[in-house]
Amino acid sequence: QGQLVESGGGLVQAGESLRLSCAASGFIFSVRTMYWFRQSPGKQRELVASVTGGGSTTYADSVKGRFTISRDNAKKTVYLQMNSLKPEDTADYYCQDDTYWGQGTKITVST
User: Fold this and answer.
1) DSSP 22-82
2) Percent over 70 (pLDDT), the chain
3) pLDDT of residue 73
4) What is the reported pLDDT for 98?
5) How far apart are CA 84 and CA 52, in angstroms?
6) Closest by alpha carbon to 19, among 78, 101, 72?
7) For residue range 52-61, what is the model confidence (pLDDT) as tens digits?
8) Integer Cα distance of 90 and 38 in angstroms
9) For residues 18 and 31, what is the distance between their CA atoms, to the nearest angstrom?
10) Are 11 and 91 in contact (CB under 8 A)?
């Protein structure tokens, strides 16, 4: 049974940075495309970024140039480096691999 566990959320001020981590277990991590989603109250879940097993990445237009997704296959971990955070980045952030979802980690960006 696979599992994803996110960490790194918190409360920050606009303009600051955070790095989220998502530790995977129970499946062959290195071949899976990994995703970061986010969801704010009253809004649909949004795909933020993805990274393939080979390291190719995609980003939502709203985070391009500010967020960076990366992975360490040896540690079975995917990261989301978030810079220049904005209040509109406030959301619950989830990692996913097409099968499993993490429990989510909350980010609040204050003005």
Assistant:
1) EEEESS-GGGS-EEEEEE-TTS--EEEEEE-TT--EEE-TTTTTTEEEEEETTTTEEEEEE
2) 100
3) 96
4) 87
5) 25
6) 78
7) 999 999 999 9
8) 9
9) 26
10) no
